[in-house]
Design goal:
The complex is a heterodimer of chains A (241) and B (306). In chain A, helix 4 (58-74) packs parallel to helix 7 (135-163). Chain A has one domain (3-238). Chain A is built from ten helices and no strands. Chain A has 241 residues and is an all-alpha fold. Chain A is elongated and about 60 Å long. In chain B, strand 11 (246-248) and strand 12 (254-257) form a beta hairpin. Chain B has 306 residues and is of the alpha/beta class. In chain B, helix 2 (92-102) crosses helix 3 (107-116) and helix 3 (107-116) crosses helix 4 (132-144). Chain B has a six-stranded mixed beta sheet with strand order 5-6-7-3-8-9, with helices on both faces. Chain B has a four-stranded antiparallel beta sheet with strand order 11-12-10-13, with helices on one face. Chain B has a three-stranded antiparallel beta sheet with strand order 2-1-4, covered by helices on one side. The longest helix of chain B is centred in the middle third of the chain and has 16 residues, at 162-177. Classes of the chains: A mainly alpha (241), B alpha/beta (306). Chain A binds chain B through residues 1-2, 5-6, 8-10, 12-13, 16-19, 75, 78-81, 83-84, 86-91, 240-241, and chain B through 47, 50-54, 67-68, 70-74, 77, 79, 81-82, 84-87, 89-91, 94, 97-99, 101-104, 142.
């Protein structure tokens, strides 16, 4: 069984479910719109970070990324859809790898595009306040933002395969991202820095302090994502379909 | 030629045996009816054959190879397990294109099977808008997609209208006529007897029968005679003398199990019995099937006294 037909089939699945391109569109719109809004707000806060403000749309945007990853996987877990898929592609590891690939690629591309558009829109609003940002910092922010959104989509995909449910995944991850991370995240402890979303968002900051830097933070998120995907693949390969 | 081989197949779900040391072979060129009451293990067996569930013991192979070892399996085996499996938000055509792409089946074939199953005119509608019968046809279209030599359908006539049932009967006969291996599950005996050449009957996961339909009818359908008379006392004694056991029924008629019309007629005539009615009352195929599976039914309604 070759790799390419499986990839083509999985990509076709993403394209032909209206909600999935819809989630990617929401990812783009939310990231750009909320970043642009942050750009026109006041920048007098002493903890103001111009790079993070320019990309702050990633906070609502990641909800769309998480939904995209969770829904792409959970569409396989209703009725006998998974049985149909695995009857067509009995090698489950290969099938799940293809699934992850067709989630990762569009999430990364849309994430990069959204980050670039968000930065341009916010810089126009921030004016001089964003003037101190170096080109290197801006490139890091945009690339990091795309990677971060891709990792969050894959993280959700892994959890959805593990829980075999999109509803369960979203009701776990959305409150986690919105509430838990917000509440305990601001009390910058040592452990909270290693939460999957908290760690990865360091790449979006101009200045950072603490144990993790921008790339090591993103690496921590990547580890969480790898763990979630492995757990999902393990459950998929071990269980009866 | 490709046959399905099931050998000592056993599947336990948390200590409960859904499939119990099952051994049978499904041969090409004929339609094999896979019968059994609900919960007998028919669907579980099909999932085991497709490598979707892992057997506790034993094996299932297709043409000598386990299903997961098949390269592009849809080109060898087509299966309908659950008509609800298609995602409601996809169009029927996209649903089939997705399956086709994974096994390098050209889109031209998608349009062919849509035509064949009578869905061509609604192919671009979302599956959500489909009736159960249309979903069933879509499931069958998916099974035929790879032009497979083995076709396995789980209750394909479910939800089909009478015209659809005639259609599926014709389709199954044609597939077998083309030399394919066809396994069709059902819990309806009469329906199955109308298209199957061979029967594999399960009860509580065990094999109850593996026999040609014709042999099943000959061996299992018992003759029975129905009699009405004005002299029941004489009737019972005459019949008892000839080794027949007559049962009386509420409306006054009698039946003799296992007896043929010719025997009873001669005996009654010789004894000068006044007969009001003498008729053959053969058990139906359905009854023969109930007799076989009765003890093996998992879910039965409490018997109601009339």
């Amino acid at each position: 069984m070759e790799r390419t037909p499986v990839l083509r089939s999985e990509w076709l699945k993403i394209r032909t479910l209206r909600s999935l391109p819809g989630a990617l569109l929401a990812l783009f719109a939310a990231t750009v719109a909320f970043s642009a809004l942050a750009g026109v707000s006041e920048a007098s806060d002493p903890g103001f970070d111009p790079l993070f403000a320019s990309l702050s749309g990633v906070i609502p945007g990641q909800i769309a990324a998480v939904s995209f990853g969770a829904m792409a996987v959970s569409s396989e877990f209703h009725q006998g859809a998974l049985r149909l898929s695995l009857a067509a592609v009995p090698r489950r590891g290969r099938w799940f790898a293809a699934k992850a690939a067709v989630i990762a690629a569009p999430a990364l591309l849309v994430g990069l595009g959204a980050a670039l558009a968000a930065l341009l829109a916010a810089r126009a609003g921030l004016g001089r306040a964003a003037g101190g940002l170096s080109t290197g910092e801006q490139v890091r922010g945009v690339v990091g933002c795309g990677l971060y959104l891709m990792l969050m989509a894959l993280f959700a995909a892994g959890i959805a395969a593990l829980l075999r449910s999109g509803v369960a995944t979203l009701s776990l991850l959305v409150p986690f991202i919105l509430v838990v991370s917000f509440v305990i995240g601001d009390a910058t402890g040592t452990l909270a820095d290693f939460l999957p979303d908290k760690a990865g968002q360091l790449v979006l900051r101009e200045t950072y302090d603490g144990t993790l830097g921008p790339w090591s933070g993103l690496a921590v998120t990547a580890l969480w994502t790898a763990a979630a995907l492995l757990a999902g693949a393990w459950r998929l390969c071990r269980r009866d379909a | 030629m490709t046959s399905i081989d099931v050998r000592d197949l056993t599947k336990e779900f948390g200590g409960r045996r859904a499939v119990d040391r099952l051994t049978f072979r499904v041969h090409p060129g004929r339609v094999t009816g896979f019968l059994g009451p609900n919960g007998a293990g028919k669907s579980t067996t099909m999932r085991l054959v497709l490598g979707l569930d892992r057997p506790t013991a034993g094996s299932a192979t297709i043409g000598g190879r386990p299903y997961p070892a098949l390269r592009e399996p849809l080109r060898h085996v087509g299966a309908l397990l659950d008509a609800q499996a298609a995602h409601g938000s996809r169009t029927a055509r996209d649903h089939l294109r997705v399956l086709a792409a994974s096994n390098r089946i050209p889109d031209r074939r998608v349009d062919e099977v849509l035509q064949e199953t009578g869905l061509a005119s609604v192919a671009r509608r979302r599956v959500r808008t489909y009736s159960l019968g249309m979903r069933q046809r879509l499931g069958i279209a998916a099974a035929l997609l790879g032009d497979p030599e083995v076709v396995m359908l789980d209750e394909p006539s479910n939800g089909l209208d009478p015209e659809g049932i005639v259609w599926i009967r014709t389709l199954l006969r044609r597939l077998a006529g083309e030399g394919r291996t066809v396994l069709v599950s059902s819990h309806l005996m009469n329906e199955t007897a109308s298209f199957a050449d061979h029967l594999v009957v399960l009860g509580r996961g065990r094999l109850l029968a593996d026999t040609p339909v014709r042999d099943f009818i000959h061996a299992r359908v018992r003759p029975r005679v129905r009699i009405r008379t004005t002299d029941p006392v004489a009737l019972t004694s005459v019949l008892a003398r000839h080794g027949h056991d007559a049962q009386e029924h509420a409306d006054g008629h009698w039946t003799v199990d296992g007896a043929r019309l010719d025997d009873i007629g001669r005996v009654a005539c010789a004894a000068g019995l006044p007969l009001l009615e003498l008729a053959a009352e053969e058990g139906t195929l359905e009854q023969a099937y109930f007799d076989l599976t009765g003890a093996e039914t998992e879910f039965t309604a409490q018997h109601q006294e009339a």
